[in-house]
Amino acid sequence: MIVLARKVAAAAVTSFLLAVAPSVGTAALIPAQLPNAAAQPDASVGDTSSTSAVPDTPMTQAGDPFLTLSIETVAPSTVTTSSDPFVTVRATVRNTGDRRVDDVSVRMQASAAIDTTAGLRTSLTLDQDRFDRVGDFVTVAESLEKDESRQFDLSMQLRSTTEPSLGIETPGVYPLLLNVNGTPEYGGTARLDDARFLLPVVGLPRNPGEMDPTNPGAMPLPPNTRNPVAMTVLWPLADIPRLAAGIPGSVDERVRLIDDELAGELASGGRLDTLLKAVEFATQTGLDPDGKLASSLCIGLDPDLLVTVSNMARGYLVVANPADPAGATREGTGSAAAAQWLSRLETIASSTCVTAMPFAQTDLGAVADIGDPTLLSSAISAPADIVDGILGITSTRGFTWSTTGGVDSNTADALRSAGTGTVLVADNALSPPTSAPTSPLVSTDNASTETPPSATLAATRYDAATAAALAGVGATPSTPALTPADQRFDLATDSRTARLQDALGAINFHALVGADRPGRSVTVAPPQYWTAGGDEPSAILSTVSSLLRSGLATPRPLAELLTEPASGTAVTSVDAATELDTGTIDLVRSQSARIDTLMQSLVEDPQSALTPRLFTAPLREDMLRALSTAGRAGAVSEETSTMARDRLTATRIGLDTIYGSVTVLAPGGVYTLASEQSPLLLVARNDLPVPVNVLLRVDAPPEMTISDVGVTQLPARGSRTITVPAEVDDTRNLSVDFSVTTLDGSRLGEVSTVSVRSNAYGQALAIITACAGALLLLLAGRRLWHRFRGQPDPADEGYERP
Length: 802
Hints:
20 helices, alpha/beta, single chain, elongated, 32 strands, five-stranded antiparallel sheet, five-stranded parallel sheet
């Protein structure tokens, strides 16, 4: 009766609290509606958008979870035959709700080994009941107040016949889950959060549960190395575009950056320093004596990054307002770090495969749609020249790494025309699916015809699921555009440690699964703009190196892959829908056309180091930077889009300024013509640092005829007087408009209006002169007539001589 009375009293208190909860703004939990997860895992419905807050997890009225679980370390991160026979996870549980949570307990669970590449992502959103290998709940906190956290360690054996274990009997990649239960104040016990990650098991250590050490089940179980996978690894070094837009090239002026974040990325401990240092460390002779990792690795370089860093090393400025790149500036702080990083890169590039990525990781589909051959060449063909010129190497050419993971038919045709022989795309972008290392790629328009295109283009593939796992590594995780919907989830709910574990599991998967398939191969390609940092790059390269040393993988150099003839069925490729709107593409198209127009009129001066190409190159590159895909798939997508809009605006303003720097100077006062055919003298000025050829455009009234003076060359930062033949057939004040244009007629500068006063009398003067002449002849003839006849001229009457 006492127990029953207590239950009734508790129910009454709960009912009262539920009744008043809406008025005080707290979240009410009805005990009868909360699953009791203290004894066994609840059968929850999986969530493809989040790995933490699954649908049946109770939430506060504000939509926040009561508890948040974050994994900090996993030991070992990769299980081998020499590892401890158990896994230890260090994690932190935090009260992120609006009330106290009591009896906080955690247990570890595991699911069956992954057997498909898609499972590398979908296994992280499985229903909890699929993690059917469970351990015991361990209380980690008697209670947690609001915003309070508790760190804990949790261990579980890999395999055992005497106590709960993860049930791992063979090498493979296994999804693991930490499940946290608790009792929120005013509520019942429920599962409040979970955290998931992949555990790669390359080899099984001894089984401590077997009493007989000679029993085969007790012995360490190594992996199958009879059929190693051929592995190629691309290692990207790229950044978000940083150069200020609308600033033309120069030989003596310092470049301007929109911010100074790149200085921190290049400095010791920065992202780019860490990515480069990981390669330097992993490929040194002591760790890679046979050069297997070095031969399987190829560094992908963004030429825009190299251009920026090489200019930073000579000193640079940082603009105060990115939207006003020509405005106030301050000194940049990363010159020394840039010079040191570039020197290290030159050293490693001299002995390692290097390939150039598309300039500024520009959207190749958008560039192809614009249809400007010069812009296309700047995006695809020129990058290799830039990389080779700055680093003094010979990079791998004829190879394009798709920035979005695929290429549509229009882009494929553009790549062919730009000289690309092989394009790297995601395997899920190809149709039909293929296992061939390289396959002939045809556009959709040519797929049904028997006549192949004039230039061949092969497609090689990287594993999309592995790329998605690698994209989740780092401070700013992202999801590649071509990732299927069932493989997408909220990466922000996972800790960096958990996301790194997923990447390690994905890399190991290709060496551990499918050993019975002949000719296995894989290309590992992180996102081009990759935010991995700290120990993450070293952990990933260390994993690849371990696979190569153990015989689970063999190196496949990129150059070797590119020399393989395309085989198998011809394939087509799809591309992710571009996020760029039509207005942006149209603006790039029009501004690129203005640059082409300007280039046709600029003149190369043998006495100057600044050529027309160097002068206009930054402006054309600004177009590609505005179409960059860097950061668009991650949390900084909105910031990146704003930067792109500001860049296009600044480029348009910069081009307007350049076009306005060549003009006709307006003369003061009124220009008076001495006669009807007197020439006009005009002064045209060029404020650009390169010479320019111009044409004179005249808008004159019908009474004035202006002769064409042809092409006039204006010197760099100088002026020239132009003599303009003019003919006026009337005496009056005239208004004439003069301007200069490019060779194709595009106007430069402003229109100058000249007031002309003409002293020509035209037809009336000719008639009067003719009449006067005729009268003069008449009078002279009359006088001669009288003189010949000896008669006095009547006009001489009164003037006779005395």
